[in-house]
Design a protein that fits this description.
The complex is a heterodimer of chains A (279) and B (235).
Chain A (H helix, E strand, L loop, with lengths): L1 E5 L3 H9 L2 E6 L17 H13 L3 E6 L8 H14 L4 E3 L2 H9 L6 E3 L8 H7 L4 E5 L10 H4 L6 E5 L15 H5 L9 E3 L2 E3 L6 H14 L3 E4 L5 H19 L4 H13 L11
Parallel strand pairs in A: 1-2, 1-10, 2-3, 3-4, 4-5, 5-6, 6-7, 7-10
Antiparallel strand pairs in A: 8-9
Chain B lengths: L3 E6 L1 H6 L2 H4 L4 E5 L10 H10 L3 E5 L5 H14 L6 E5 L2 H10 L4 E5 L1 H7 L4 H10 L2 E6 L5 H4 L5 E6 L1 E6 L22 E3 L8 E4 L2 E5 L9 E6 L9
Parallel strand pairs in B: 1-2, 1-12, 2-3, 3-4, 4-5, 5-6, 6-7, 7-12
Antiparallel strand pairs in B: 8-11, 9-10, 10-11
Classes of the chains: A alpha/beta (279), B alpha/beta (235).
Chain lengths: 279, 235
């Protein structure tokens, strides 16, 4: 299982690729992606530099275009992607069907990776994508590895990728969750609600359940493990170390029970997991 | 013309429903758009056909391959070119399969989760996408979405009582990922409040949403789907 880590700066990408990540994925401002500008690179040029640096290391960079955009922006987006691809051949992570069709129709020749936000929940959905240059599909956050056997073993030769749930997992299903848009706020799902006068949190998986996701993903034969972009790079460094040790344990053939025990210690070794256990 | 009236029930609710409660409506929406554990089995669907005097519409959420098989079994058993089965679809794989293999046996209505994906598509692409997939109807619960689908030759079903805002697959009642389901949500609703919310959120099944009133008046709304919130927090 190879690690794919989100990156928002050249130096960070270099560290990630030198410390266990096989690939980095990045967004750039103006190309639609699922993060605000503070978690994107400065510009297209920085992305090209990262892609070339990754290639020199025998690794890869992926261009994240995992968000919708206005139709009037399509021509500019396509032109910029073409210009990037002319300088470095990289896969493009894509979410929206119309943008995928537009890019292909307008001569953007890339390997495409279907975003988790495209909500591919079954192998039949892969059939829709089979002739659209898609080489990999990222499982939606809320699709369990044990439910995805036919996607993982698909007959189209598409690779599969899954989020590192032992780092982060949304309580609700992005992008079918519209809470933030409704309230024009951030992480409305994590508010401290009351219900019948009692404190209430929107439930999310607890630590053993998160660890089971990682265990199951590894044993299901999923190819890539995704570590998300975060604002504080120190957090991401800790998470990458956590993931590497967990993968080493899994490669050694540790049992599920032992993985839960050891994994829990690893989980709480990450600073940002200390106060948000879900337990 | 007066819109036709439909009642939405999950499979467990259908099993518990008294026959008299089903008689007031011309249509039964059987299933759930948000939880695959509430989708009927082929046996449930057969029961609905026996128990309900009117037409039965199959309602489906995002589907894993296993749930897909169950839906496909219902389609195979209960549809034909002469007796087309209406299905509410929220899954790209199902939509694509219907187009490829069952276009002469099903009538497709775009579900509420999928409608939010289509609403951000460029209008010309959306029109072509819906036409290509034989979508004739859209399920809506928010009047704000009506203009996005107007002028595309579609009919609208408007859901009253509950407007979905979010959905999870980590069961908020039983605290586990999908799998063995004890139907702990059956007949229950949870009201969530927070000072920053303009209105309370209601948790019903695996969906969070808002309590809503009557449907808006619109010439293309020719079906009202009554989706009442359960009375309270009883088990």
């Amino acid at each position: 299982m190879l690690i794919v880590a989100g990156s928002k700066a050249y130096d960070e990408a270099e560290w990630l690729l030198s410390n266990g990540a096989a690939e980095v994925y990045c967004g750039v401002p103006g190309l639609p992606n699922h993060r605000d500008a503070d978690q994107c690179l400065k510009d297209d040029g920085e992305f090209v530099s990262i892609a070339k640096m990754a290639r020199a290391k025998g690794r890869r960079a992926l261009l994240a275009m995992n968000e919708a955009c206005f139709e009037e922006d399509y021509p500019v987006v396509a032109a910029r992607v073409k210009a990037i691809l002319k300088q470095c051949k990289v896969p493009v992570i894509i979410r929206e069907l119309p943008l995928l069709h537009y890019l292909r129709k307008n001569g953007v020749k890339a390997e495409f990776i279907i975003s988790s936000l495209s909500l591919v929940f079954n192998s039949r959905a892969l059939e829709y994508y089979k002739n659209l240059g898609v080489k990999r599909v990222i499982l939606p956050f809320h699709l369990m590895p044990y439910e995805a056997g036919r996607i993982i073993g698909n007959r189209f030769g598409m690779e599969t990728e899954i989020f590192f749930h032992a780092d982060f997992c949304c309580p609700n299903m992005d992008p079918a969750c519209r809470l933030d848009g409704w309230l024009k706020s951030f992480q409305v799902c994590r508010f401290h609600y009351t219900s019948s006068g009692k404190a209430h949190r929107m439930p999310e998986a607890n630590v053993p359940q998160k660890l089971d996701m990682v265990y199951d993903a590894f044993h299901a034969g999923i190819d890539y493990l995704k570590i998300i972009r975060v604002t504080d790079f120190k957090d991401q460094q800790e998470v990458l170390r956590e993931a590497r040790v967990m993968l080493a344990l899994l490669e050694k053939g540790v049992s599920r029970e032992d993985f839960r025990k050891l994994g829990e210690k690893l989980y709480f070794s990450v600073s940002r997991h200390g106060g948000r256990t879900g337990r | 013309m007066k819109p036709e009236s439909a009642l939405q029930l999950s499979a467990p609710a259908l099993r518990a429903a008294a026959p008299a409660a089903l008689k007031k409506h011309g249509l039964l929406y059987l299933g759930d758009e948000f939880c695959q554990n509430l989708v009927p089995s082929p046996e449930d669907f057969a029961l609905a056909l026996r128990k309900f005097p009117g037409r039965v519409v199959l309602v489906t959420p995002l589907l894993t391959d296993a749930a897909f098989d169950s839906v496909e079994a219902i389609v195979k058993a209960h549809s034909s070119p002469r007796r087309r089965l209406e299905v509410v679809v929220n899954d790209l794989g199902l939509l694509h399969t219907f187009k490829a293999r069952y276009s002469h046996r099903v009538l497709v209505s775009l579900g509420r989760v999928f409608a939010h994906r289509v609403k951000v598509m460029p209008r010309k692409f959306a029109a072509g996408f819906l036409k290509e997939h034989n979508v004739k109807r859209v399920e809506l619960d928010d009047p704000a979405l009506l203009p996005r689908f107007e002028g595309l030759g579609l009919k609208f079903s408007f859901h009253t009582g509950f407007r979905y805002v979010s959905v999870t697959r980590f069961c908020p009642w039983e605290l586990h990922w999908p799998g063995a389901c004890g139907h702990a949500c059956s007949g229950r609703v949870k009201k969530l409040e927070h000072p920053r919310l303009p209105a309370p959120l209601f948790l019903r099944g695996q969906a969070y949403g808002l309590k809503t009133g009557a449907a808006p008046s619109h010439p293309a709304i020719n079906r009202l789907v009554r989706e009442p919130l359960p009375a309270g927090g009883r088990k």
